[in-house]
Amino acid sequence: MSNAQFIVVANRLPVDAVVDAEGNRTWRRSPGGLVTALEPVLQANRGTWIGWAGTAGAAPEPFESDGVTLLPVELSENEIFRYYEGFSNASLWPLYHDAVEPRVFRRSWWKSYYEVNERFAEVCAREAAPGAVVWIQDYQLQLVPGMLRERRPDLRIGFFLHIPFPPVELFMQLPHRMEILKGLLGADLVGFQRPLAAQNFLALTRHLLGYRPRGHYVTVDDRLVRADAFPISIDTAANEEVAGTERVRQRAKEIRAELGEPETIFLGVDRLDYTKGIEVRLKAFRELLEDGRLEVPKAVMIQVATPSRERVDQYVALRERVEREVGRINGEYGQVGLPAVHYLHQSFDRYELAALYQAADVMAVTPLRDGMNLVAKEYVASQADNRGALVLSEFAGAAGDLRQAFLVNPHDLTDLKDGFVTAATASADDKMKRMRAMRRYLRKHDVSRWARSFLTALGVPERSAAYNPGSLPSAD
Ligand code: ADQ
Predict the structure, then answer these.
(1) CDD domains in the record, alphabetically (predicted)?
(2) Tens digit of pLDDT for each residue in 436-457?
(3) Which residue(s) pair with 135 in the sheet?
(4) 93 Cα: distance to centroid of ligand 1 (angstroms)
């Protein structure tokens, strides 16, 4: 047993390996809300982050980064294929997102998922101090809470699911559904993005295990498990600060100038994922051009599609479909030097991203299903002058927080098209009122509030423990 008082367990470590020309490896911290939110807590408690380092083969030795111990877990090439790309991303991911794409099940994938979860649980059981707090993240590691509790009943265990949790009928399709449910019930607190997801989970304990949930709680072997919603957010202050820099303002102007000063710039920024509704968004834009309700070059679209899961079949096929649609729109509606859709299959740093957000008149966030969607929140935080308009899918968790967005149903093409036009033609006053209200909300409900409320619900007192240097109280 080691002395780690506070442990985060996630599929990936919060760093990426950078290998130079001589083959030397260094680590670059990967930016992201989760890291930002958890960093102070981890630093204050000599915290440990357990996760995969992102490459196949033997795990690197544990190392320190900004006062946090990073503990890499090994994954073989075969496990990356079966546990990660297979069961996590081709079985669970589509099923949990309302099966908007058909899910694939393979028995060998499950075996690997089980084994990798067991490896994470074993590493964690070895590292945790008596009574330590462990916070497990996301759908790749749903068996870890149960496996860890078996090995270390003294720990206080939290689990947070970043993606939606499906209704009972869909979850029931999952092979090994019982093991997964029991795995999650190993936690003291199971957190979700939205209240409905927590309700789905509690209903399932009744349906599948015959338990009797009461309110947010269900009793499992004399132990009380709480299931509740903790909507994740962004580091609002950091986003506002970047958006307020001269560099970003200048770059936003430059982008508008480079596009020929259009009246309306529509923007989409997503991982290239079939849940994000990129295809339906492009289709809506094409039909609006077809109908003559929009016209190039007065209206243009920028679609940033971050490369993602490029070895999973459904993602390869999606990329082909999206690129074909972009080609079709540009072929039909572009002019020499004036494409209708600017398609960028690239990653950008946060300054460029903020400049794109600021340059855009209408941000189109139209997922068919999404746990939260941080892009919508980042866009709002970047609107220093409250000028832009957010079109937001009702099926994104963010719709529960950003109530003043132009809400649309992306499964209804007519509604989506109308939403685009309404947002593009809304008065400056209307847009400003909406944006102000959403920015106020995000200043209060930022990512550190999210982490704090989860940890408080897990029983970590706010004024001691994780929020101040020193040790955490024991779990009893
Ligand atoms: P994701 O599905 O990855 O997250 P999202 O919440 O939008 O979706 O986060 C994407 C992040 O990547 C944003 O912070 C965004 O700035 C960044 N990003 C996107 N495109 C980029 C690009 N081209 N270059 C650089 N950065 C880019 C999952 C769930 C979501 C949930 C989050 C957090 O699917 O529903 O909101 O986890 O819980």
Answers:
(1) GT20_TPS
(2) 999 999 999 999 999 999 999 9
(3) 8, 158
(4) 15
